[in-house]
Amino acid sequence: MSSRIDVRKTYKLFIGGAFPRSESGYSYVVNDHKGAFVANAALASRKDARDALGAARKAQAGWAGRAAYNRAQILYRVAEVMEDRRPQFVQAVQQSEGLSGSKAERVVDEAVDRWVWYAGWADKLAQVVGNANPVAGPFFNLSTPEPTGVVAVLAPERSSLLGLVSVLAPVIVSGNTAVLVSSYSRPLPAVNLAEVLATSDVPGGVVNVLTGKAATVAPWLAAHMDVNAIDLTGVAGDAALATDLEVAAADNLKRVRRAPAAEPDWSAEPGLEPMTAFLETKTVWHPMGV
Amino acid sequence: MSIFEYAPAPESRSIVDIKGSYGLFVNGEFTDGHGTPFKTVNPATEEVLAEVAEADASDVDAAVKAARKAYDKVWGPMPGRERAKYLYRIARILQERAREISVLETIDNGKPIKESRDVDVPTAAAFFFYYAGWADKLEHSGYGSTPLGVAGQVIPWNFPLLMLAWKIAPALACGNTVVLKPAETTPLTALLFAEICQQADLPLGVVNIITGAGATGETLVGHPGIDKVAFTGSTGVGKAIARTVAGSNKKVTLELGGKAANIVFDDAPMDQAVEGIVNGIFFNQGHVCCAGSRLLVQESVADEVLERLKRRMSTLRLGDPLDKNTDVGAINSAAQLARIHELSDIGEAEGAGRWSPECELPANGFWFPPTVFTGVSQAHRIAREEIFGPVLSVLTFRTPSEAVEKANNTPYGLSAGIWTDKGSRILDIAGRLRAGVVWANTFNKFDPTSPFGGYKESGYGREGGRHGLAAYLKGADA
């Protein structure tokens, strides 16, 4: 009697809405928490990073130009599809992080709920962080938040799904587009999330996922003149690399969300900072009077 | 030249008592600096006004220590409502001594008295008044109410007192103490402000003023004892600061250069637009980071706008900054004048058409006539680089989208202007411009309640308004 041979999956990058292999042809071995082979993940190169940035830039104006209501619905749709694929995420988180089944389930629940939480912010952010300014003179004067543009996101190394969602959703909810470098050692939930994004009405290029090493890809992202901001959360604890990336980011005065000393507790309520770090405030004046 | 000649109407400078030499203001008292003293001159006459102390590393250290002590012992623990009263006191003293301060500002900076009297000093007072009211209401700001600690602040020479107010008022309101370094060419009103702090009985060490040039600023920014860096100045220095603070826990806000587009559509209210263009680039001799230095005018009205603009420029009065009728004062320094000459000459060499009204420049001092360049393309250096002087580059466009594309074609993103009678167009264009401040049918308006700051290489953070508090509170980012 012959047992069935399972069909294995090739884990690829996610760029411009498509799933290419790395241009470099490189991949690397992903093991589970016990060290057993799970998959070969694509090892993103400098060229992949550049392609991803190109896709993110191309998508940015259109994404920011959508109605906030529409962005909210699309983000909520992502949560729906995540929920739908819950078993897959539970397995990936368990495999990556070595959590027990029930713990992994809780992490996935929290990640889906967090995504829902951020989805709701799309059409409320301007009301909470914007202002009508009572200037001393006959002027109408309004300050509103706008996305800063293309954001490079270094996802946390340990928290492969909840941490990932916690750095990605706040970037895109306001109309930024993202190039995300996943956890190097735990990249599979990121690829699963990319597959969810690809089937959730998120326009191609809004999120681009690179699996690979932050230490090799991030310097190109930090130094790139067409990147508006960078989130260094993923290099938490590596002060030397974080400093190098901050120095590189100074060349075009990128907005930098600094690396924390250690990976934060992702179960805590995020607050506004992960979103406001990637917003600009625009103030428009107009005279008033007939 | 205008038909009617004006009689000279100089403001008396007798109200100002300029001392022969000035020390640093550290821990509530004036002390000698350990660096090499330098001289500050009146740019309109090249008269030496005073010798000013230079803070060396030990002086910077002493100032930071004084600020830290004041933060730990007095200012940090003080209830917000008490801090508020000190800030209200300072606002009132600025109003009471307004005449004296404006005359001193004009003498040290070269800007026309009507600007220091009607804009700089009243707006500086308004900033203290506005932020005074926040000191006991921070929990309603949306940013929490935890101060950062000691702020190191470095400000430029174009609005010496106003920039001081932009920096010090929100910092103190949030419970921080400060070490501020004014620009080396315009230190005098900051030192007068130190006396105002004494007059207000502000606790010792809450405000420290250290004078010096770039090296002093670098030492301050790099000092491990400060928690916050606030800088207004050039983009080049802003990038250097961003590198310096990399890897530290210092919070940073930067207000840097600009190359603002002032966009005039064919249906613009023409008289107001021409006034706005003039105000946009010739206000404060063009020494304004948000100056409307690129005029984008719709092709169909370009000739008319230029003709009206030249006619209006011919009525601008350049000369003695202390004269109440002066519109254009002196360039702040010989170095800045040289920079303006250099870029203007390049503009000419690259083929742009140069025009200035007939204008007699005073024999002494640093002067540059209001200048307009026509036939400018986006590749010209005068369209790309910040000149920081009374020099306007004129480009044309045909469609709104072309205007937006040209306006955004710059690494800067501080400000922009739109002139049109069509409301829907204003809202559309304002939304598509990548700039922190958009003035529609007006230009160069400032108010303490209104956030100001840049996109892209014009820096990060906002000054003014509720948003301005975020720069001085823990965990806030906006």
From TrEMBL, chain A:
Keywords: Oxidoreductase. SUPFAM superfamilies: ALDH-like (SSF53720). The keyword Oxidoreductase applies. Residues 26-256 form the Aldehyde dehydrogenase domain. Gene3D superfamilies: Aldehyde Dehydrogenase, Chain A, domain 1. InterPro entries: Ald_DH/histidinol_DH (IPR016161), Ald_DH_N (IPR016162), Aldehyde_DH_dom (IPR015590). It comes from the Bacteria. This is Acyl-CoA reductase-like NAD-dependent aldehyde dehydrogenase. It comes from Nocardioides salarius.
UniProtKB/TrEMBL annotation, chain B:
Belongs to the aldehyde dehydrogenase family. The active site is at 255. It comes from Nocardioides salarius. Pfam families: Aldedh. PROSITE patterns: ALDEHYDE_DEHYDR_GLU. Residues 31-474 form the Aldehyde dehydrogenase domain. Keywords: Oxidoreductase. This is Acyl-CoA reductase-like NAD-dependent aldehyde dehydrogenase.
